[in-house]
Specification:
Helix content is 48%, strand content 22%. The chain is α/β, with parallel strands linked by helices. The chain has a five-stranded parallel β-sheet, sandwiched between helices. The protein is globular and about 35 Å long.
Length: 126
């Protein structure tokens, strides 16, 4: 891949985001974290090299789905994380462009494998 792919991670819990960022950085990815929609929007506006967005949707309002639609319109794949994923949420995430939905707690190896798979998909389709 040459240059490290950028993953933009959004979540309410900064400590969880830091742990996620460390895990992803150890996997060779560049990671930016945001704990609010405003921060996320700023990062998205500043960086035109976002390869993947990782959303921990717990604690966010319906606005999170608008961001998913915007990312989908820009062809930026999304990984959605949530503590519980009832069918209605799964349907909402998929209908707004989420490629993968994982229920927390997520096993580190599963998360790494999922992101590797998404990055390979991105590489092959761009």
């Amino acid at each position: 891949m040459g240059e490290a792919a950028l993953i933009l991670a959004l979540g309410k819990r900064e400590r969880n985001l830091e742990l996620l960022a460390d895990l992803l950085k150890n996997g060779g990815y560049d990671v930016e974290i945001a704990t609010s929609m405003g921060e996320f929007d700023e990062l998205l506006e500043q960086r035109d090299d976002v390869a993947l967005a990782d959303h921990d949707v717990d604690g966010f309002t319906e606005d999170i789905w608008k961001r998913c639609e915007q990312l989908n319109a820009r062809d930026i794949p999304m990984l959605v994380l949530a503590a519980q994923i009832p069918p209605a949420m799964r349907q909402k995430a998929v209908s707004r462009g989420a490629q993968t939905i994982l229920e927390k707690p997520v096993d580190k190896a599963d998360l790494q494998a999922t992101i590797r798979g998404l990055m390979e998909y991105i590489r092959m389709n761009r």
